[in-house]
Amino acid sequence: MNKQIILKNRPEGLPDNNTWELQENPIPEPKEGEVLIKHHYISLDPAMRGWMREGKSYIEPVELDDVMRAGSIGEIIKSNNHPRFKVGDYVTGWGGVQQYAVTNGDNWYAVDPNLAPLPMYIGTLGMPGMTAYFGILEVGKIKEGDIVLVSGAAGAVGSVVGQIAKIKGCRVIGIAGGKEKCSYIKDVLGFDAAIDYKSEDIYEAIKNECPKGIDVYFDNVGGEILDAALSRLRMHARIVICGAISQYNNMENMKGPKNYLSLLVSRATMQGMVVMDYAKDYGSAAREMGGWLAQGKLKSKEDVYEGIENFHETFLRLFSGNKMGKLVLKVIEA
Amino acid sequence: MNKQIILKNRPEGLPDNNTWELQENPIPEPKEGEVLIKHHYISLDPAMRGWMREGKSYIEPVELDDVMRAGSIGEIIKSNNHPRFKVGDYVTGWGGVQQYAVTNGDNWYAVDPNLAPLPMYIGTLGMPGMTAYFGILEVGKIKEGDIVLVSGAAGAVGSVVGQIAKIKGCRVIGIAGGKEKCSYIKDVLGFDAAIDYKSEDIYEAIKNECPKGIDVYFDNVGGEILDAALSRLRMHARIVICGAISQYNNMENMKGPKNYLSLLVSRATMQGMVVMDYAKDYGSAAREMGGWLAQGKLKSKEDVYEGIENFHETFLRLFSGNKMGKLVLKVIEA
């Protein structure tokens, strides 16, 4: 049987026990030109909260009674004359929160399980890594010597953003919650400084760590931290709007960045990005990131939990901050 | 004697009777290399409210007990060996709210009183016009066919923004307060549509007038109207942050744009601008704008009040909206 997580109700705040339902349905058969994938890992990302909301966004919402959308990685166990993929291939794509998926292969990519652990392909070498890469390089337009501030710095995107900025010769300050994460980004990832938003006054801390101001702020969180970053911009600063995890469960009463007029004072730019726009360049980005991983310049951390039954509580770790690095759920059963 | 408006107290909200003091002081003598200017007109601009606030901004605040800063235009009536200007020249610069000013001429420009009325040199051919020109062309990056929304559309900046966008082949929708202003921008200035924010639901109205969305939003007002514009962005939209007149008297309790995540959804850019950055190109801009004025493609309107004694109540018209076009105070006495 195929265990699936079905969206049953649209939550108002954090998802609760009525939001999803675990169902067991027969494993589907691939039609002509399709393959059947056995999922090993599901990617858990803050953006999923947005897909649960009705209305226009950069992607269609998940419909009620549909399988919850998610990135995934698995092995092809059956092919019905698929032109590209064969049984035994490992592939990553949008398989959803379920143990088996059938697809014609559009937007699925083959990966080599011998080059990197599978969870890394949905983390640093997957969407979060691509988001970091194109966000900081193409939107943030960093150059050597820039002062770069990143929030969610111990997360799947932020940790890669900061490391790429270090590779490019920037001074990098990360914001994360708690001592363990702050030590990790400084001592393991090599950030120049870490700010613990749970124990420090964020305005004071940014002022102390960025006395000359900020050239690039990469924002994953929104809210108070975005306000504080806006208060310390250098001239022609760039703010990359990648997400707003502090606001995703509170969109009706959304907090806008009250210091946005510093864009005017500092002739600064705030720009939104969606990683899918860069799909044609994923390949070259993955090769460069793979090189950095191989040389030890880039470190990748995945926080893996087990059991599709534990999807709901694991998902909530995205918003409680109770995880480190890329959050991944192992759904294959022994 | 020289009547001067002196800043005495920093207001919290709207300026009141304790904010400024009218003083009469002796007319100053120009030192070696300086000139004495007899002011004809003073420019009244929303930005002046910002200069009254303490703290870091794009320009130093006006000090307490100093003459209130303002753009101005007048005639040189005395020169003490000035290298560029001679008696009888008309010049515009930052003379402040007073009847006479002494200067070494830095950042002052000579104008020809026979080519255009003096108030126009501090309006459409002055800072507001330059702000509109560089804001919509360089920051807004308009191109033919773009859908352009502008707030404060009957004002000194907005009216020029909309007309330039029309000249460049855009569809232009203006937002203004009241029937008279809305008729003016449509019937006189040739905007394609007008939205009266005082009598219409701004979200509904923008939706109706921009069914395909907005390519460029030029924002002079902030607040609710910025939120509404953000809700209707097209892909890769540009938002020019020129000012936030709805918020200038309320900075402690600033309202941030709660719909800013539409920047992400629409891969849009929000960018701040300050006109002084374009000073080296003022000359060529003024020549192009002058050409448009001469051909009747660009219309300029100045709303002229009289008497430096009436500075305070005239200034408040900027925030009540009780004026049309560029607000100017005539300070020369008959």
Automatic annotation (TrEMBL), chains A, B:
Output one GO MF annotation. oxidoreductase activity, acting on the CH-CH group of donors, NAD or NADP as acceptor
Q: Which UniProt keywords apply?
A: Oxidoreductase
Q: Where is the Enoyl reductase (ER) domain?
A: 13-329
SUPFAM superfamilies under this entry? Answer: GroES-like (SSF50129), NAD(P)-binding Rossmann-fold domains (SSF51735)
**Membrane-spanning intervals of the chain:** none
Gene3D superfamilies for this protein = Medium-chain alcohol dehydrogenases, catalytic domain, NAD(P)-binding Rossmann-like Domain
Q: Which domain of life is it from?
A: Bacteria
Q: Which InterPro entries match?
A: ADH-like_C (IPR013149), ADH_N_2 (IPR041694), ER (IPR020843), GroES-like_sf (IPR011032), MDR_fam (IPR045010), NAD(P)-bd_dom_sf (IPR036291)
What name does this protein carry? Enoyl reductase (ER) domain-containing protein
Its taxonomic path starts at: Bacteria, Pseudomonadati, Bacteroidota, Flavobacteriia, Flavobacteriales
